[in-house]
Amino acid sequence: MKKVKVLSVFGTRPEAIKMAPLIKEIEKDESLESLVCVTAQHRDMLDQVMDIFDLKANVDLDIMQKSQTLTDITTRALIGLEGAFKALKPDLVLVHGDTTTTFAAGLAAFYSKIAVGHVEAGLRTYDKYQPFPEEMNRKLTTALADLYFAPTPYSRNNLLKENIPEKNIFVTGNTAIDCLSLTISDEYEFMEKSLNHINFEGKRIITMTAHRRENIGEPLEAICKAVKRIVEDNEDIEVIYPVHSNPAVRETAERILDGNKRIHLLNPLDIKDMHNLMNKSYFVMTDSGGLQEEVPSMGKPVLVLRNVTERPEGVEAGTLKIAGVEEDKIYEMASTLLHDEKIYSEMAIAKNPFGDGFASRRIVEAIKYHFGIINERPLDYTVNQLEN
Ligand code: UD1
Ligand code: UDP
């Protein structure tokens, strides 16, 4: 029988991390042919993931430019993808999440009349500009897709409310959780050598990341100022901040946080270092989407450096709290976590509403079901459901 050609398209670090376990699962299946096209909207941060998971691209569009605009990414990806689709002739294009690569790949596939499968479908804040441009990217991708792999029942319900046909939605869990079993280990030695000298037993370590487009400028300044105050006021605290490669993020982080011995600004870490670092930390502060999914299963509190989240399942589970982007509020919430043991332990409960490690397997089954290779629809991933 002719194999179904599945082309995974991605361009940034988080897409690559969350597509990696799925690509491995597609490669294992004899009825599917796995193809990969990277836009390389990110370059060094993407290559770091490709290397660690040993992923190879059939086509690399190499579109990244320094300080690129959304229009740069969209147009360069769209033009490149048209050629890639002509050359590779996929039966299905898989896109992930909500980046501009995701949207451009969905649009390019639609123009070429190729079916689109959307991994991590149905996340919403229902606020057009938060996160920007991700909320719009995922809504537009919903409009362009044919198959929807919703990570949780909550995201499935968002899609149902938007009249997406039930038969096209599969609840799979999040592939980010599939990754965790591949990365975390007890006696871990960091590739980033400086982390092997951190006193994880004697100090309380806060890991932070902050890079979102809507936080660049004043909000990121406020975040960094709050972090600086937290470190200055608590001698047993050290902060580790692997800084995104975006020059605008680096400039602010370095200007405000450089020079304090208990604040460590690092280059982007590889995913194994990152997961093991978070697993050894006291708590995490972040504006990242991926971290909000990963950290709840490590039993560490997370302060979310945003005004809204599209991942309310983690708030409901008690691990995530929205700290916003104002200096005083972030400072106060972090201080409470540091000094109130009851609040800390209420948040530090390992709960994982985002997946059970089998999301990739379910997505492969759903693809095979869609193409008539198997007759049985895969069972949905179920968790205690948050009402929406
Ligand atoms: C992008 C996604 C965002 C995702 C984030 C994950 C869009 C619009 N944004 O945001 O949804 O959460 O990735 O990190 O799709 N750069 C490098 N090397 C790299 C990567 C980036 O130098 O490997 C620099 C470049 O100057 C680039 C800039 O960072 O122009 C911004 O990158 P870009 O992909 O446009 O936006 P992100 O903020 O990374
Ligand atoms: N991550 C990483 N190295 C880092 C920072 C983050 O490997 O230095 C991982 C993190 O564990 C998660 C993903 O990258 O899996 C999140 O990506 P990012 O923060 O770039 O994007 P977002 O989640 O905001 O879309």
At a glance:
The protein has about 400 residues and is of the alpha/beta class.
The main β sheet shows up as: 7 strands, parallel
Instruction: Give the CA-CA distance, first to last residue.
Output: 43 Å
Number of helices: 15
Q: Which stretches are poorly predicted, pLDDT < 50 over at least 5 residues?
A: none
Oligomer: single chain
What's the number of extended β-strand segments? 13
Structural class estimated from helices and strands: alpha/beta
- Give the H and E element order: EHEHEHEHEHEHEHEHEHEHEHEHEHHH
What is the topology, as strand order, of the major beta sheet?
Answer: 3-2-1-4-5-6-7
Radius of gyration, in angstroms, nearest whole number: 20 Å
Description:
Strand 5 (115-119), helix 5 (134-144) and strand 6 form a beta-alpha-beta unit. The model has no long low-confidence stretch (mean pLDDT 96). Strands 3-2-1-4-5-6-7 form a 7-stranded parallel β-sheet, with helices on both faces. It has a 6-stranded parallel β-sheet with strand order 10-9-8-11-12-13, sandwiched between helices. It has helices at 13-28, 44-52, 70-88, 100-111, 134-144, 153-161, 175-183, 218-233, 247-257, 271-280, 289-294, 312-317, 327-339, 341-347, 359-370; strands spanning 4-10, 32-38, 59-60, 92-96, 115-119, 147-150, 169-171, 204-209, 237-242, 263-266, 283-286, 302-304, 320-322. Helix 3 crosses helix 4 (100-111), helix 4 (100-111) packs parallel to helix 5 (134-144) and helix 8 (218-233) runs parallel beside helix 13 (327-339). It is 43% helix and 15% strand. The protein has 388 residues and is α/β, with parallel strands linked by helices. The chain has 15 helices and 13 strands. Uridine-diphosphate-N-acetylglucosamine (UD1) is lined by residues 12-14, 41-46, 65-68, 70, 73, 98-100, 133-134, 211, 213, 244-247. Uridine-5'-diphosphate binds at residues 13-14, 17, 209, 242, 268-269, 271, 274-275, 288-291, 294.
